[in-house]
Design a protein that fits this description.
Thrombin, subunit H; eight-stranded antiparallel sheet; globular
Length: 149
């Protein structure tokens, strides 16, 4: 039987062998910000998926948990006024190459690198979406799930 869920167990060993290549590929966060959805009318709820690509900061490690932040350029029209509701959304990395005509094409497999949980709006030109990183997901969260907490 085929599954649409991402198999954490299948990818855990590979993901825990190294660190993400933050300067390579396309980094995309996928989720459902509340400001783009209708959550007020209980009889007509609508959820709008957002896919946003941005740069990432080097992972921060604290007590064997890692965190990675996605930069959202506030000068772009594609950045919503808030990322609230995006929590739990996946941060994905895809290696890309170019076709002879210049079009981008994915190379290899897309990897789940993080899970969004917090937004930061400091003064300046960027907002940040903080994500639990690969160690937090593949070692701690997944390990807790299969070991019963």
């Amino acid at each position: 039987m085929s599954s649409l869920f991402y198999d954490l167990d299948k990818h855990a060993e590979e993901m825990l062998e190294g660190e993400p290549a933050i300067d390579k590929g396309l980094w995309t966060i996928v989720g459902t910000p509340a400001c783009l959805s209708n959550l007020e009318d209980q009889g007509n709820l609508t959820f709008t998926k957002m896919t946003y690509s941005g740069g990432v900061e080097s992972p921060i490690v604290r007590d064997d948990f890692d965190y990675i932040e996605v930069r959202a350029n506030l000068g772009l029209d594609s950045v919503p006024p808030s990322f609230k509701g995006l929590s739990g959304g996946g941060l994905w990395q895809t290696d890309v190459g170019r076709k002879p005509d210049g079009a981008l094409v994915p190379i290899g497999k897309t990897r789940l690198e993080g899970c969004a949980f917090y937004e930061i709006w400091p003064p300046g030109e960027y907002a940040y979406i903080r994500c639990h990183g690969r160690r937090s997901i593949y070692k701690h969260a997944f390990g807790s799930l299969i070991n019963g907490g």
